[in-house]
Amino acid sequence: MITVLSGGTGTPKLLQGLKEIVNPKDLTIIVNTLENDYFSGVYVSADIDTVLYTMADMINEDVWYGVKDDTFITHERLEELGCGELLRIGDIDRATKIQKTQLMEEYGLLKACEIQAKNMGIESRIIPMSQDQTDIKIITDIGELEFHDFLIKYQSMPEVLDIEFSKVKPCEGIIDSIRNSEAVIIGPSNPITSILPILSLDGVWDALKDTYVVAVSPIVGSGAVSGPANKFMKALDIEVSSVGVASLYQDFLDNIIIDNEDENLKSKLNQIVNKVTITNTIMSNLGVKKNLAQIIIDSISLKKRGDY
Amino acid sequence: MITVLSGGTGTPKLLQGLKEIVNPKDLTIIVNTLENDYFSGVYVSADIDTVLYTMADMINEDVWYGVKDDTFITHERLEELGCGELLRIGDIDRATKIQKTQLMEEYGLLKACEIQAKNMGIESRIIPMSQDQTDIKIITDIGELEFHDFLIKYQSMPEVLDIEFSKVKPCEGIIDSIRNSEAVIIGPSNPITSILPILSLDGVWDALKDTYVVAVSPIVGSGAVSGPANKFMKALDIEVSSVGVASLYQDFLDNIIIDNEDENLKSKLNQIVNKVTITNTIMSNLGVKKNLAQIIIDSISLKKRGDY
């Protein structure tokens, strides 16, 4: 069993590779819920849906959000009516969200995800990090912003001074999943708004210390491969580089995987992490994704043999 | 100014005729809200939307619900997911409902309808009968049913023993609209579940007594032209005929318009209502609708001249 900690874009790309290499039944994916909220009457759990669609081969890879080849009839009509949605919700995607909202109100988010994953033929276990609603504030140079307003309305343009999010309870099964896994993979997602919320859950940090942890750095050079990770890292005084990522995870990190471009950081990283793996982490096609997944799995196997 | 009391199918057909005969600016339409409720995260006010779409020439005349030529991508996907919606909500129609829900939560239902009517280029005033949520129970031979379950899930099949609905506050403007109108038209909607809820609002009954009231009977022969009016009338011990309709409204009714088929009821009706008008009330095309509207308007004009 392998547990993956996931946000919404980088890690799902890696999951596409992993599910070709590992039996999907042997994967548990713990997904960030920091930004979950209601939009247009439905509960939107963007990262969970991205992971669901990725594992079901339905994801729209142009934006890593929503369903490929979806239509936007309701969404576009709302724009015509002068009441545009902040999130671009497609018509098929909206059905997923309506169903999840109903299932969630009846059974809670964990069970809702379980049912939806099963519906979509997904054999991996997908666990939301929490069933609680997180309050999150992005404190910027133009004032305090809602997370989606910062990301979408303001296109991550303002300078970020601080990020505050409320403490939530870990979802049932998370600690057990980490402790019972032969390894935990921290995907190349935003360390601050996707991974840190999972790490901040009671018991997760300690459980990771007792488990073999491999992280793929989402930072190549001094820029995040996608998303506004840079601004969030800067705001928390974390160096925007693989070194910054490793330092954030160093309490429990056994192996960091960085891009070829960052080979020069190896000696610096070796002072923080036991093992540094250098490869192509720019997942521009399935070949790269599978290769990266294979390197991770090999590192886990080596560790089992005590060869690292 | 003329005020129309409306439900969801018969009266909108009449409105299609009326808006060709009368300046739409001179029409106020008070609409039933008895069955309003949340479905799939959005507030559904079926009769209001039918009136809005009718006045905006957007109505789907096949079912007198929703928008013509709409698609059902989200709705059909929900069915595929095993989580079908009780109401068949189209993709364009869903945008109306999402917008109304948001406007309603911000401004209340009255203002939401006003904004949506204006958006759709409607010049008539459309007033929901109430901004309150009505509790309604249909007591049947198979038990107590929700209104939409009775209508849709059980296709109005069970025998109705009783109907109970809670008292709600009339929307602002309703009593003034009735009192300031030269006439009130009660459309051919279900007398029990569409019209009676409006009549039961505090002050409406008395205001109608002081106004010239024309009703179009929704019953032809002994069957309602559409919908389950028969069962509801029987349950309340009201004769299922134009006579039953007239007796329900007799306290304030000045003129009842019945179908040619019911000519034999004229003398019986004359004992209840001052004036009985006989014409074709089966509104199968715009010609019939306009003709019926013209007869109503003529009756209102005659009354002004004191010639009735």
Chart the SSEs and their pairings.
2 copies of one chain form a homodimer.
Chain A: E1 2-6, H1 10-21, E2 27-31, E3 37-39, E4 42-44, H2 46-55, H3 73-80, H4 91-107, H5 109-119, E5 125-128, E6 136-140, E7 143-145, H6 147-153, E8 160-165, H7 174-179, E9 183-186, H8 191-199, H9 204-209, E10 213-216, E11 219-220, E12 223-224, H10 229-235, H11 242-249, E13 255-259, H12 266-270, E14 275-279, H13 286-304
Parallel strand pairs in A: 1-2, 1-9, 2-5, 9-10, 10-13, 13-14
Antiparallel strand pairs in A: 3-4, 6-7, 6-8, 11-12
Helix pairs in contact in A: 1-2, 1-13, 4-5
Biggest interface, chains and residues, is: A-B, 25 and 25 residues
Strand order in the largest sheet of chain A: 5-2-1-9-10-13-14
Quaternary form:
homodimer
How many runs of DSSP E, i.e. beta strands of chain A? 14
Shape of chain A: globular
Class computed from helices, strands and strand pairing of chain A: alpha/beta
Keywords:
homodimer; 308 residues; alpha/beta; 7-stranded parallel β-sheet
Plain-language structure description:
The structure is a homodimer of 308-residue chains. With 308 residues, chain A is of the alpha/beta class. In chain A, the strands form four sheets. A seven-stranded parallel sheet of chain A has the order 5-2-1-9-10-13-14, sandwiched between helices. In chain A, strands 7-6-8 form a three-stranded antiparallel sheet. In chain A, strands 3-4 form a two-stranded antiparallel ribbon. The model of chain A has no long low-confidence stretch (mean pLDDT 94). Helix content of chain A is 41%, strand content 18%.
